[in-house]
Each structure stands twice: as C-alpha cells, then as structure tokens.
Predict the structure.
Amino acid sequence: MTNHICFIGGGNMAGSLISGLVSNQYPASKITVTDPDQQKLDHLKNLLSINTEIDNLKAVKDSDVIVLAVKPQVLKTVCENIRQVTLKTRPLIISIAAGIRSKDIDRWLGGNNALVRCMPNTPALIQAGATGLFANNCTSSEQKNIADQILSSAGITLWVDKEEQLDAVTAVSGSGPAYFFLFMEAMQKAGKELGLDENTAGLLARQTALGAARMALEGEDDAVTLRSKVTSKGGTTAAAIESFESNNFSGIISQALTAAHDRAVELADELGKN
C-alpha cells in the first residue's frame, strides 16, 4: 500500500520534492500539502493535482509520513500543534528544516517518534540536489527507505551515522552552491577584465563549471586525477594553479567550511534551546 505523505509547508523545497515524486509516478492522490497561503496551495494543486489543506491537524490525521518543510523559527510551534495527533498515529517524521536537531523535534512532538532529519541543498529545486540524512533509533529500515524515496526524488541522498555529521554536510553541500556561484562570479569578473564581454565571460564560467562537475560525477577519475590531466607542466593551467596555491587556496576553503560548520552548530544550539 502506498503511504499517504503530508507536507507541512508548501515552499520551494517542498514543491520540488512533490514534483519529483509525481514525476516518478507516485500517486498525487496520496500527497497532501498544507500552508497558510491559499494562493500557494492553489498553485500546487493546479500544477500537480495533489491534495491541499489549510489546517495542519486535519491534514496529518490520516498521514503515514509527515514532512516538516517550514522555516526553522516556526517549527516548534508547528510540532506542538500537531503533537496531539502524531502521538496517537505515530507517523514517520521527516524534517527538512535547517539546523534543528532531531532530539529537539522529537521533544516538541512528545517523544519516541520515528524521525529522519535531512539537509538538502538548493539544486534540489531542479532535481539536482544533494541531501544528507540521519535517522534516529526509533526509525525502522523500511521507514529509512521511505525517506530515501522522498528525498531522492530531488537528487542524490547520502546517509550519515552520527547526527553531528550533518553540520559537515551543511558546510560542504548545504551552503556549497553559494561557493560555486561566488567562484563563477569571480571568473566572470576576471574574464571581463581580460577583455571579454560580460555575457561571454559569464557563459564560459557557467558552462565550464557544468562540464567539470559532469566529468567528476560521470567519469571514473577522482578530482585530483582530473586536475592533473588538464594541468600540463609549464602550461597556462599550471600557472593558474600555482597562483591559487601560493595564495593558500586550500587553506581558504578549509577556513570557510569550518566557519560554516561552526555556525551550523551555533544555530542548532540557539534554535533548539526552548
């Protein structure tokens, strides 16, 4: 029997996951989304033929899976609102709310819930995401498979054994798209300074990023090997790489990801303290 999935929150990430599920032939009749914005609900209903509901309590009553897709700042209120239902029905809880630890979500829901916490990233909006997942001890293998099915509808999924590893996932892939956008922005600016028009420099940077990513994902070589293959001794690429390394490129990246990781820990502490 197909599980009935309720998405609480109808924002971009939820819409992307729902779209991926429907595209993969998951029955739209088994998906419900809730949101206080009726226009948003109408748009999703017209686009994907799913069920919609303003009232969270009504929506979760018959749900086997609940996906918490709201802003972290309102998650506690949402959880406490539906707790009276979930304590009776015991659905699988999946959270894609950034930064809030599973123990805090479980506490707000009354305890002993099967709960999967996820850290997706924005390329999930085009079904090219990377999501880290962690399951608590109450979650069965079958429930982990359900969570994997839902999140993999928007890209790749990778499970971690320890929840604190999600802070590293946040640093690498959760925040990661912005790093590449920054790098492309810098390449576009440098290309313009070297004489290219802005559109040409920007398109070259973006297409080069896409090509490099595809080679890394689809080929058999790791990043070190790929880089060595395009870096001829004494050539133009070698000159650029030497410039990067002389300016501590690896150290800069390490410091940036550490800053993102540490901030993720701080935010989890702040958001879960109540």
